Amino acid sequence: MNGVEEAITQAHHQQWARVVAILTRRFGDLDVAEEAAAEAFATAVERWPADGVPTNLAAWLITTANRKAIDRLRREHKRDEKHQEAQMLSADVPPEPLGAIDDDRLRLIFTCCHPALALESRVALTLRLVGGLTVPEIARAFLVQEAAMGRRITRAKAKIKAARIPYRVPAAQELPGRVSAVLAVLFLIFNEGYLASSPHTDPVRHELTAEAIRLARLLRVLLPQDGEVAGLLALMLLTEARRTARVSATGELVTLEEQDRGGWDPALIADGHQLVRERLAAAAAGVAPGRYQILAAINAVHTDARDVRDTDWSQIVALYDQLVRIDDSPIITLNRAIAVAELDGPDVALAAVERLENKLTGYHPYHATRADLLRRLGRSQESRVAYDRAIALTANTAESAYLIRRRNQLR
């Protein structure tokens, strides 16, 4: 990649959401903003190799996109009000102050993740308008036909318009609930990359985990005081640090205890630990941690151990106890039981796991966890049945390969 191509790629990563956000506020139309931003970047691809890379990338892209939007509105004679509005705007608009740009970008994130939209629509809009992914890229990411994904995004934008969903940052009293909706979207994107839900893709999808981390970093810049934003970013970083060690050369999942810890990314771990320490300091000052912060702290304990035998399981169980008090979901209880098995033994853990059967009967990690505990207790036949159930429910190819091997090792 030459210098100009690299500059365009970097500009797309850093400026796409900013350009779309500014044009959305200026013209009040997501379609206009999205198309004009895409045309501005297409113009950059054509002109920068010949003209050189502009000194102020943001100003060049915003000005170019603004002109493209005005040109489009002038061509659309049916949109008289928009045409008149466009005529009132200068084609040469100076860049906005950084604070205003950041506010616009934050408005865009909250608009894309509005709870009035279906969750899959929030994910698609966030990846398209905030992340800048193309419709084909999003369709491939979630194994949907390109035309169907295009219709999904179009319907979501139409609903925003029809329902008059406001393009704004929520009021102070609304912010906690709305931030949690944004974080849920980013976490869903990350989890699909961390452990793909389809057998037709790579088992670990770096392009999705990287995009989720990039968007979480952006949100962290925009909401630096929000503890759960910091917690989710730390959780993603500490999980991503282990990515290259998670699948073997033969395509089999490598569990945490079997991973080569020398292959973990020390820079990501350092960044994640720093965020966790900041949140621990806040907790010491009386600010109660949320779900993502506690999950990040659990991952910090795991990544702090140079060897699996050095893991502080008592601290992990204590953190899960804290988490259960704010989120007593059966999945959290299942994960706590896995830690309890290391501290109090597989028999104690199995008793806790089996109490979840009616709630997690279709959840393959439940059966995989139960199979492993039964194996450790020497109950091989029951373990085999549980492994078979887990394998039947697992779509991820690396995870299936691991479970099949463990089942076949039973006597």
Report on this structure.
There is one protein chain. With 411 residues, this protein is mainly alpha-helical. Among the domains are: 3-98; 348-411. The chain is built from 19 helices and no strands.
Strand and helix map with partners:
Layout: H1 3-27, H2 30-51, H3 57-75, H4 80-88, H5 98-112, H6 119-130, H7 135-141, H8 146-162, H9 175-194, H10 206-222, H11 227-240, H12 266-284, H13 291-304, H14 313-326, H15 330-344, H16 346-354, H17 364-376, H18 380-393, H19 397-408
Helix pairs in contact: 1-2, 1-3, 1-5, 2-3, 3-4, 5-6, 6-8, 6-9, 7-8, 9-10, 9-11, 10-11, 11-12, 11-13, 12-13, 13-14, 14-15, 15-16, 16-17, 17-18, 18-19
For the record, give the distance between the C-alpha atoms at the N and C termini, rounded to a whole number: 54 Å
The number of E-state strands comes to 0
Question: Could you list the spans in which at least 5 consecutive residues all have pLDDT below 50?
Answer: 90-101
Structural class estimated from helices and strands = mainly alpha
Order of helices and strands: HHHHHHHHHHHHHHHHHHH
Pfam family, one: DUF6596
InterPro entries: DUF6596, RNA_pol_sigma70_r2, RNA_pol_sigma70_r4_t2, RNA_pol_sigma_r2, RNA_pol_sigma_r3/r4-like, TPR-like_helical_dom_sf, WH-like_DNA-bd_sf
GO molecular function: DNA binding; sigma factor activity
Protein name: Putative RNA polymerase, sigma-24 subunit, ECF subfamily
